[in-house]
Every structure is written in structure tokens, then in C-alpha cells.
Amino acid sequence: MITKFCQERPEMSVNRACNVLELSRSTYYYFKTSSSHPARCRGRPTTSKTYNIYKEEEVPDDIVVKEIETVLSRKFVLYGYKKVTAVLRREGYVINHKKVYRLMREKGFLLKEFPRKEYYRREKEKDEERLDAPNRKWSIDIKHGKAENSEKGYIIAVKDCFTKEIIAFETSRKHTAVEVEKVLYLALANRNLKEFPIQELYVTSDNGREIIKAMKSLKEIGIIHCRITPRSPWENGEIESFFSCLEREVFQRFEIEDFNEMRKLVFEYIEFYNTERIHGGIGYKTPQEKYWDYIHSQQQEVLSNVG
User: Fold this and answer.
1) In the beta sheet, which residues pair with residue 146?
2) Residues paired with residue 29 on neighbouring β-strands, in sequence order
3) Most confidently modeled of 45-49, 156-160, 213-217?
């Protein structure tokens, strides 16, 4: 209508007509283009191939979809389109997350969307501000699990908040202070922390009496115990995040017949969690990749100082 009006009145420009009608020029040109060229209003045309830098060639989308199926068929894998994009890029594909989303949507691979929950924002603690290396802050907690035959199990886990790695764990029939203390000493051994007192190692936990009792014996070797505010699990969010993944990717997906199978699955999952599962919080790396990247960076820094 504006185009016809301006054509009939040469003195009236499109800019002036839009100002009179209080209409944005971009809106006018958008509808003008979409009416004459309907395909243009849907953005760039979709591509049917994706370039792979390792193969040095363009790969058809059918093969990309098979790659996505292979990723999602792995045991314990429960990825959304962003993590699938990261995996494909690690395998050499030059691909946009929006294309991965489209391909997964067409094949019905997208995860079920859950309603957003209310999240609590908290201020950074002093020890979090210094979280620039492994073995600065650990997080510990206990999760309860139940098998099909009603056997109970307790997973005690310690997580390094810098690398996101589960550095020690135990699946036990009980969760006394002795078991908690055993897992903590195992974490110290796994990280080769043998020189006491240990410098600047914070261990965050809830207010469970088993953990509090175990931490009292480790206080003598320099470990600083940080207890969260009662009824504030988000303050221990690192280990809570791990147990949330364990619940969603193991306990809700597999039928666990007895305690022994639970113990076996937890062992396999934590091995997967540390060595294969990529984490968005550390740049879509695995925890062990994050740890060794830090070790290599420290070695390079030492060599550069020597040189």
C-alpha cells in the first residue's frame, strides 16, 4: 500500500510515508520483500552438507545424522543439541549449533524440555575467588540409592570444583563417618597430596553428622571444612550437580536389580563422567582433559621461566 501510495505521489518518499504512519522502515522493507519473495523471509537457505576438516571434504547431512545417532547411542550419554554440537566439532565438523538443533528436531532426538525452576543467586565466597587450580576446593556429599529388590546403597563422592572430576568415591551399604573418612583419604592419595599440613584446601559439605565427624579428624592435616547454611543445597552446588546427573543418567534410565549391580553401574558411570562426558562449565572438555591442560600449562610456564 505504501509503495503504491508513493508511486502515485512522486513528492512523497518512502521515508516520509513511514514517518507519517509511525512505521519502521525495516518493517516496511521486510514485508515488501517477503510478499514478493516468500522464501527470503525464512533466512538463509538450509544446507545439505557439512565440511569436515579431518576428511577435508563436505559430508552429506545423512552421515552427520548417523554421527549424531552414534553419539546418542553410547551408554550413559544424555546430551542436548549444544553438547552434541561440541562433540561433532571435536570430530572435525564445522557446524553451527542451530543446524544440529534442526537435524535433531527433524529426527526426534531432542531432549524433553522441563519447566524452568527458580534458581537462587548467591555471592561468591572468598575461596571461590581463588579457584584457579585443582585441589583448592573440593565438594563432598552422600546420595541414597535403592535397587529393585529394595536393597539400599549410599554413594559417597568427592568432587574437585576446578576440574569437575570425581576424585574419590565409594558405593557402600552404610554411610558412617568411617566410610566418609576413607573416601577423603582416598581423594588425598589420588591427588598425591602427601605433604602435611595441606595448604589452602577447602572442603564444602552439608551439615550431615557423618561428614562433620569425619572432617574433624582431617582438620589436623590442614583441610579447611566449609559447612553450608542449613537447608541451602545450592551452596554445595558442585556435588549436587553431579548427583543430579547420576540420578538422571543412571537411576532413572536403568533397572537396577540389586546392590551389586548398583555398585557396578556407579563405577562405570563415574569412569565415563571423568573421562568421556563433556562439561559446559569447563569449555566442553572432560574433567581429565581440564586437569591435564592445567598440568601442561604449569609445565610450560616452568620451562619458559627456565629459558
Assistant:
1) 152
2) none
3) 156-160
| Residue appearing with cell numbers 568427592 | 158
Q: Which domain holds residue 161?
A: 131-297
Name the β-bridge partners of 152. Answer: 146
**Could you tell me where the DSSP H helices lie in the chain?**
2-8, 14-20, 25-36, 61-72, 81-90, 97-107, 126-129, 177-190, 209-218, 237-246, 259-275, 287-306
- Entry pTM: 0.81
Q: How many domains does the chain have?
A: 3
Which is more confidently placed, 52 or 200? 52
Tell whether 10 and 102 lie within a shared domain.
no
Peptide bond before residue 197 is cis, with ω within 30 degrees of 0: yes
Q: Which residues pair with 118 in a beta bridge?
A: none
> Are residues 287 and 140 located together in one domain of the fold?
yes
| Tens-place pLDDT, residues 180-239 | 999 999 999 999 887 777 878 999 999 999 999 999 888 888 899 999 999 898 999 999
The total number of residues shown for the chain amounts to: 307
Percentage of the chain beyond pLDDT 90 is 66
What lies within 8 Å, CB to CB, of 258 at 6+ separation is: 147, 148, 149, 151
Kindly report the CATH number assigned to the domain that includes residue 228.
Answer: 3.30.420.10
Beta bridge partners of 205: 227
30 and 66 share a domain? Answer: no
Nearest C-alpha neighbor of 224 from the set 125, 123, 120: 125
Grid coordinates representing 123 are 555471592
Dist CA 211 CA 179 (whole Å):
9
Model confidence at 25, pLDDT cuts 50, 70, 90, reads confident
* CA pair distance 271, 273, nearest whole angstrom: 5
